[in-house]
Write a structure and sequence with these properties.
Layout lengths: L3 E7 L2 E9 L2 H17 L4 H22 L7 E9 L2 E7 L13
Antiparallel strand pairs: 1-2, 2-3, 3-4
Helix pairs in contact: 1-2
Length: 104
Amino acid sequence: MKYIQSFYVTGNRTKARLALPSQIKEVGVFLVRLVNVLAENDFDANDVFAVRLAVEEALINAIKHGNKMDQAKKVHLRIAIGSGVFRIQIRDEGSGFEPAAVPV
């Protein structure tokens, strides 16, 4: 993937750092690759579906609400995939928000 900043293996985990452009079309490109990597790491179909859905929602929110569709901004990802383990951290370049101001 052309947006990978670093990719390395430590022990039984593969780790990557990526920066995606704030474009909705890039979410689909990334998700195809993610689904393939999860399948290669023996995640079952239900887990792959759940991860894909959650990551898609988080990325779209980061682009639309965090970065306000500003194509000059990026969405940063840190990923770790191992035996039965998937972790992702998603960070946008938006101005943030006050959690206490969000209606419950």
